[in-house]
Amino acid sequence: MGDDTLKTTLSAKHYQADQINDWCAGCGDHGILRALEKAMAKLELARDQTAVFGGIGCSGKTPYYLNVGGVHTLHGRVLSFAAGAKLANPALNVIAIGGDGDGLSIGAGHFVNSGRRNLDLLYILFNNGVYGLTKGQAAPTLRIGEKTRSMPRCVIQQHMNPIALAVISGYTWVARGYAYDVPALTDLVVAAMQHRGIAFLEVLQPCPKYNDLHTKDWYGDRLYKLSDDGYQALIAAETDAASVQQIYNEALARAAQWGELVPTGLFLQDLSKPDFRSQLAGLQPGIARRPPCQCVVTDDSGRTQIDLEPLFETLRIAADSSQT
Amino acid sequence: MLSDQRIWYAVSSIITRINSAVVKHGTENLAWRIGGPQGSGINRIARLFARACAAQGMEVICRREYHSNIMGRHSYNDVVISAQALQCHRESTDILVTFDAETLCRHVHSLKPWGFALYADADGDVGLGRLPYLDQRLRDDLNAALSAAGLPETTQGLLEMAEQRGVRTVCIPYQALLERLADQLGMVKKAVSATQNMLAVAISAALIGMPEQALLAALEQTFLGKEHIVRMNREAVAIAYNHAQQLQPHVFRISLHGQASPRLLLDGTQSVALGKLAAGMGFQSYYPISPATDESTFLEARAEVRSTRGETCGPLVLQVEDELAAINMASGAALTGARSATATSGPGFSLMAEGLGWAGMNEVPLVITLYQRGGPSTGMPTRTDQGDLLFALHAGHGEFPRIILASGDVASCFYDAAQAFDYAERYQTPVIQMLDKALTSTLQTVPVFDTAAVTIDRGAVLASSEQQPQAVERFALTASGISPRPLLGQPGTWYWSTGVEHSEWGQVSEDPVLREQMMEKRAHKLALAAAEIPLSEKLEIHGDEDAAFTIFTWGSNKGAVLDALQQLSDRGIRARAVVLRLLWPFPADAVQALLQSASPSVMVECNYSAELNSLFVQQARRGCDHLVLKYSGRPISAEALLPQLVSIQAGDAGYRNVLRNAYE
Ligand SMILES: Cc1ncc(C[n+]2csc(CCOP(=O)(O)OP(=O)(O)O)c2C)c(N)n1
Ligand code: SF4
Ligand SMILES: [Mg+2]
Q1: Once rounded to an integer, what is the mean pLDDT over residues A172-183?
Q2: How far apart (Å, rounded) are the C-alpha atoms in residues B245 and B32?
């Protein structure tokens, strides 16, 4: 994605920022960070042309630890900031990162509406079942009746299914990875970045500190790879409506699996939907040639060179010729 | 006979009534009002009329009052016409154009004794109890007045009461005229009934002697490309002008100077939109809300602008899911170097508070156009108010710099909107341009904007490097507090940025010393802005600069204040007006000096608690001697303000003076 400026060979190490990492030892977040570094190296993302945005939570700190543009935003708002940057500078490789509380609770409106926009960026949701940074309250991913050791009482609300929500919200690439399977996760990040349109990657992320239900052991051999099951996730550009519907139904059926078997891998890649940029280019071709970050045009003395005459024309009152 | 009268005299500027002696009533303008149910095209037809008047070389200023409703509730528009530049609407009216009984009830009292009321034959005798949208309070008041005068509680009673004051009432047989129109077009009457507003406008236009041609030209422009509508309305105009001949004894002839220089006819939202385009805005995200939406939709429709060199450089204007997304997306866009903005009103701005703080903390140049409306809560979405000043000043938790400027008239909306981006980029902080609903819907003739006057200052931007890409400090500590700004995606650099307290490198730090340095750095920028921004950009002084009688105001009240100031001067009363533009950083020294030489001092605001005055008390350690306030949701006019100012000057007024009009 994007052309590198001054391309050199970059290894995963080049993407590691020289910063103290304050995640708990054993936290799934470490695995996700490793996968990101590796994927960036595989893709040779230009560090000056890449920006990672984080929400608020343990997960949201990820941008601090990466040697690319890093923006730590607000609780629940990460997708908005990330989308603004991508819209204004489409050459930028943009990754938005947030927790399950961040994306499914306080930021759920942006989660859904970002799917609708199908902008070319990757959203990674760290699903640890809890609000890590505020010490273990239930996240919307926890099921009714479940109670982690950090909670005073069990959950008395239904859970949300991030994969299903992404599928019905219009995300055109939807997958699930596992924080402790770094190689597979790396491949998913690479594939997501290569997808044109909005990609949603849920990562099952054990939180050894607060979530004693969904531990490494619990995931153990429940996890299976969709691709190993002969699952077909791709909707090619010119697919008929009935086949599209069938794949969506199948994706939703797989999304509902949780318990004895938990699927990972790609649930859906829909190439039949237009992405945001091509929609916009149809309406406003000029934007494709000159992105929002380059709209200021001045002469040498700093005077604006935007020509408002055509607009003034529509609002102008000419001296009337019928006047005698 | 009438065709001879269709001349706009270009000599004197008074209004004459043909069939009687010249009535000179002091003001050199004519106030025309049209009202009707929402959904009946009142606003569009009023704009059409204003355009026709302007094309005749006159200055116009138009006010629009409407409910938060799509169909049925009452709305009205005023068009004030004059040979001279206008600054303020009028609460009284000279010509009232109606085609429903409710409008008659609401506005017949506002007519000057020499005025005219046009009403539909069907509305000549309607019981007030039969008008569902007439507010109970108003109905009670009108009924009480009618019974006191021994008149029936009907429109007939109201018309009679008006006639007793000298008002001329002109009954228009709209249904018969519509039938004639339908016949001529070979259509059914129902299909042409939408032209009733055109009939009404055209008859009134004929009565003031407007050439039919002028109205037709405005018609064509208003409905450009809608041939069917134009044809129907053309016929309606012809029928109306024909009918007006029978009303000859009622003819008002208004004689005004022709104004040759080209002007723009536009409203506050359009003016802001053009200012943003001139400044090279690249991105605007918004969520629909009255009265801010019109700006964004105007921009959306005209986003493909070009540079003088022919390059397309239009902004991306995007409707998003809520105001949280709107402000935060704009911030995200600003990080890449796009000049970015959002536009909203009270409830939306309340939602933006957290994002505003993020922009402050991350030193993001972000412009927020805040169109005030009546609050709190949903309040009065379509009515004016200035109750958000202190909120704009304090919105968001914690302390961070922001710049607030208030625009006072339609023309300055343009220049202020453009300059807001300069302030934002120079001081790397959010800028809030405040307007109010009154300004939003003020349609006015203004001199064509001077784009050559729009210079662009992008502030300190980090130089691009040809080196191997490297991390750079986003928040470098400097003497000025301003760090050269790297952009996301700028070749050769990347950086970190965060809403958490941070180091120069944009990495988390809660070190107490660094915290102090960062707080001081951010605060310093505000002090710098206060020092650098010239006085002329902070406030305007009008009238007699040496006068002691001093009237302070901000926002759209400017027009009323300046108009009243002129009238005070006509009466030999020396006074000056101070209109504040930069509300934060507050120009404390200048205001203090002005207050010291002010006696009496008056604050004019459209709110309940005199918010700017309380800022005076806090920042300049002294408030004004008198307050003139209005918080009915309707704007202040010079007509209402002048008597208050006169009594304040005469020492007859108390501290708090509230302007009221039960018929707005
Ligand atoms: C508006 C707002 N409300 C509440 C908080 C407090 N808060 C910080 S992190 C967090 C939850 C984090 O949970 P999640 O998003 O799941 O991230 P995790 O720590 O689990 O990675 C909350 C509620 C906040 N920062 N902002
Ligand atoms: S609290 Fe949980 S999610 Fe947060 S760093 Fe510790 S283990 Fe990871
Ligand atoms: Mg979580």
Answers
A1: 98
A2: 20
Q: Name every chain A residue with its beta carbon within 8 A of the beta carbon of B263.
A: 316-317
CA distances from B148 to A183, B135, B142, B145 (A): 90, 20, 10, 5
Angstrom distance (rounded) from CA B288 to CA A71: 28
pLDDT digits (tens, 9 = 90+) for B202-225: 999 998 889 999 999 999 999 999
- Region A130-148 average pLDDT: 98
Q: Do B280 and A322 touch (CB under 8 A)?
A: no
Identify the band that residue B253 occupies on the pLDDT scale cut at 50, 70 and 90: low
Ligand 2, pocket-test mutation among A21, A22, A27, most atoms within 8 A of CB: A27
Percent of chain B scoring above 70 in pLDDT: 94
The predicted complex's ipTM stands at: 0.96
Locate A146 and state its tokens.
Answer: 């479940």
CB-based contact A69:A52 (threshold 8 Å): yes
pLDDT of the residue at B7? 30
Would you say B583 and B618 are in contact if contact means Cβ atoms under 8 Å apart?
A: no
Q: What are phi and psi of B484, to 5 degrees?
A: -55, 130
Q: Which residue of chain B comes nearest to A63, CA vs CA? A: B496
Mean pLDDT of the B429-443 span: 98
What number is the average pLDDT over the span A191-201? 98
Contact A41, A67 (CB under 8 A): no
> A264: which residues sit within 8 A by CB, 6+ positions away?
A175, A176, A177, A178, A181, A184, A204, A223, A224, A225, A226
* B4-242 and B535-658 share one fold: no
Beta strands in B546-625 (DSSP E): 550-554, 576-580, 582-584, 601-605
pLDDT of B468 reads: 87
Query: Alpha-carbon distance A90 to A2, whole Å?
Result: 9
Whether the ω angle into residue B585 lies within 30 degrees of 0, i.e. cis, is: yes
CATH class of B535-658: alpha beta
Please, what's the b/e burial string for A5-24 (b: 16 or more CB within 10 A of its CB; e: otherwise)?
Answer: beeeebebebbbbebeeebe
Amino acid at B487: L
Interface test with A, best of B261, B448, B494, B510 (most A CBs within 10 A): B494
| φ/ψ of residue A160, rounded to 5 | -110, 150
The Å distance, Cα A81 to ligand 1 centre, comes to: 17
Interval B296-315: pLDDT, tens:
999 999 988 999 999 888 89
Cβ-Cβ contacts under 8 Å, B217 against chain A: 320, 322
pLDDT at site B4: 27
How high does pLDDT run on average in chain B? 93
Determine contact, residues B215/B234, Cβ cutoff 8 Å.
Answer: no
- Over range B488-505, report the average pLDDT: 97
Query: For the residues B160-177, what does the mean pLDDT come to?
Result: 96
pLDDT value at residue B209: 86
Domain architecture of chain A: domains with CATH: 12-280 (3.40.50.970), 290-323 (no CATH)
The superfamily in CATH containing domain B4-242 is Pyruvate-ferredoxin oxidoreductase, PFOR, domain III (3.40.920.10)
B48/A contact by beta carbon, under 8 A: no
Coil, helix or strand at residue A82: helix
Domain residue extents for chain B? 4-242, 265-453, 470-532, 535-658
Contact residues on chain A for B8, CB-CB shorter than 8 A: 323
Tell if the CB–CB gap between B494 and A85 is shorter than 8 Å: no
Mean pLDDT of B362-390: 98
Q: Is the pLDDT of residue B252 over 80?
A: no
Look at residue B367 and tell me whether its pLDDT is greater than 70. yes
The reply to whether residue B497 touches residue A72, judged by beta carbons under 8 angstroms, is yes
The top-level CATH class assigned to B265-453 is alpha beta
Q: Give the separation between CA A305 and CA A301, rounded to whole angstroms.
A: 11
